[in-house]
Amino acid sequence: MSLVAGSNERFIWGFKLKPVTTEQSLTLAPLFSYPSHQSAILSAAAAGPIAASGSSDDTIHLYDLPSAASLGSLYQHTASVTALSFFTPASLSFPRNLISADAEGYVCIFDADPFVHLKTVRAHKKRINDLAVHPSGKLALSVGRDDCLAMLNLVRGRRSFYCRLGKEASLVRYGLDAEKFFMATEEKVGVHETEDAKLVTELQCPNRVLCAAPGENGLLFTGGEDKNITAWDTKTGKVAYCIEDAHKSRVKGIVVLTKSNGGVDDPYLLASASSDGVVRVWDVRNSMKEEKANPLAEASTNARLTCLAGSSIKCRRSPVPSSDLCCRLSNEREQHPKRTKLLR
């Protein structure tokens, strides 16, 4: 399991979860750490051997996790990149598409092998807060500061649905089975049917929700200003269990390692990151049994973390060679000089 965390200090942090040879325990071994952007990192995503980060410098940076190498940057956006999501078919171990969103309401669709821009869609009138790609790869949902929910047809590359929510939603997620999706507005998380967007139930959290990740058996893990990690049963709307005081500061990111993304041997692991720079890995089985759960592994970055992404690497196939990608990006700089004037 590999983890990638972004920070306000422009640094990207990579970790590899490894077993300790002398003991029956785990450790977060550092993969890389360097200022990959010129401004704060706002979003991150990972799938298979690839990771990506989006920043307020209007760029997307790409990383090869097995070799801990930089693959270059994408320059299609002209505003802060606020959300990223990979689409990986169930039959493949390498992502097929990268979907990104920005602060001007645009969504970009990229082919991930190689990284080529396919389409830009205007999804919202204001900043996009979050987006989620349907497991089929045909649809995506996005929420923004225009208090609206948008549905994007990724096959045709256009917006197919747009409705006003009445209140700004900060995040949106699909369940693992894609039968439901979740939207968070302040302290509440709505559980909706995917087919008709009907509200099934509402999860009432004690404080504002800042991050969420779906789990197995209809669970949804949430974290935020209460510093806890809460597992919700989305069928009943009740709390299944809770890791209280998981961090000393706000929880800014959660990654669940499930069977669906390749972690067959470790289907109970959960990683979290907080704004005080600490990344922790938990075994949720211990959380269900113990009153005070202890993390399996921990790493401190001494940075203000803003996002967290994770991947179970099932193949070591590298994407486009770094030299080829750099040549392509150099050509893109020449074609779009205004988009790259702030970059190195």
Structural class: mainly beta
Largest sheet: 4 strands, antiparallel
Strand order of the largest sheet: 3-2-1-28
| Rounded radius of gyration (Å) | 19 Å
Give the CA-CA distance, first to last residue. 31 Å
Dominant shape? globular
Keywords: Repeat, Ribosome biogenesis, WD repeat
Pfam families: WD40
Organism: Linum tenue
Protein name: P21-activated protein kinase-interacting protein 1-like
Features of this protein?
4-stranded antiparallel β-sheet; P21-activated protein kinase-interacting protein 1-like; 344 residues
What can you tell me about this protein's structure?
By secondary structure, the chain is mostly beta strands. It contains 2 helices and 28 strands. It has helices at 284-289, 322-335, and strands at 2-7, 11-19, 26-35, 41-47, 50-55, 60-64, 69-74, 81-87, 97-102, 106-112, 115-122, 128-133, 139-144, 148-153, 158-164, 171-174, 180-185, 188-193, 199-204, 209-214, 219-224, 229-233, 238-243, 251-256, 269-274, 278-283, 297-300, 305-311. Strand 6 (60-64) and strand 7 form a beta hairpin. 48% of the residues are buried.
Secondary structure: elements and pairs:
Elements: E1 2-7, E2 11-19, E3 26-35, E4 41-47, E5 50-55, E6 60-64, E7 69-74, E8 81-87, E9 97-102, E10 106-112, E11 115-122, E12 128-133, E13 139-144, E14 148-153, E15 158-164, E16 171-174, E17 180-185, E18 188-193, E19 199-204, E20 209-214, E21 219-224, E22 229-233, E23 238-243, E24 251-256, E25 269-274, E26 278-283, H1 284-289, E27 297-300, E28 305-311, H2 322-335
Antiparallel strand pairs: 1-2, 1-28, 2-3, 4-5, 5-6, 6-7, 8-9, 9-10, 10-11, 12-13, 13-14, 14-15, 16-17, 17-18, 18-19, 20-21, 21-22, 22-23, 24-25, 25-26, 26-27
